[in-house]
Amino acid sequence: MKNHAHSSTVTRLDRSRHAAPQVFERLREMILSLELTPGTVLSRTELANRYGLSQTPVRDALMKLGEEGLVDIYPQHATVVSQINVTSALQAHFLRRSIELEVVRTLAEQRNAALIAQLRETIARQTELLDLKNYEQFSLLDQAFHRQMYEAAGVPQLWDLVRRLSGHIDRLRRLHLPVEGKTMAVVRDHAEIIDAIEHGDVEAAQAALRKHLSGTLNQIDQIRTSHPNFLADG
Question: Domain containing 185: what range?
Fold first, then answer.
């Protein structure tokens, strides 16, 4: 265990919504972006003070993060941001690849011009970020690209399922994103997927998707070398 997450500033929540889901969403985002790195101790008292809450909604948020494997909860002791579990990452990848191969098949058979234009716009926005090294916004657009495909294929709830199970592989991808050439490869892969969908070429769309989703997993050894304390085999 290492540093605590400190903040003396009270973070305002939307009082029209329940507090626990908002705390969960904010902490999850901070963990996935690596603002809260593996090993960071999360104090229930400090979090309650930060969000201006009692400890009950904070406890509920931490328990939900624990269910996703993003924190380790030691009763009566501490809650710690978990290491990135490689086994969990591999299983999340398997699930996502299995679903998205069928998603791109469906889209290639449909060849929806409005969707293709929407996806190209997302790619264009990602391209604008390449020189800015704005990895956070780039990641959000990456998620938007894939979510748009799920929605167009008529399976938006499967996107929600994949997101819930992808915390470990999302953190691996976030570690990999700053590597030279990675963001450009993501944009290139997205363009190849859309080109194949536009041409109705199912095999090409699936091949481009397989290559796209495997990029980070092919670099696990290098990521482990660069961040030895962040990864666990599980």
Answer: 85-232
The domain boundary residue, chosen from 82, 110, 130: 82
Claim to verify: residue 186 and residue 77 sit in the same structural domain: no
Question: Residue 198: its pLDDT value, please?
Answer: 97
Nearest to 217 by CA among 89, 115, 105, 122: 89
Q: Which of 142, 153, 140, 138 shows the shortest CA–CA distance to 197?
A: 153
Residue 8 lies in a domain: no
The two structure tokens encoding residue 69: 């494997």
Number of domains in the chain: 2
pLDDT of 1 reads 43
Q: What are phi and psi of 60, to 5 degrees?
A: -65, -40
Q: How far apart are the first and last CA of the chain?
A: 17
Single pTM value for the model: 0.87
pLDDT score of 42: 95
| Angle subtended at Cα 25 by Cα 62 and Cα 224, rounded to the nearest 5 degrees | 75
On the question of pLDDT at 13 being above 80, the answer is no
- Claim to verify: residue 118 and residue 45 sit in the same structural domain: no
- Identify the pLDDT of residue 132: 85
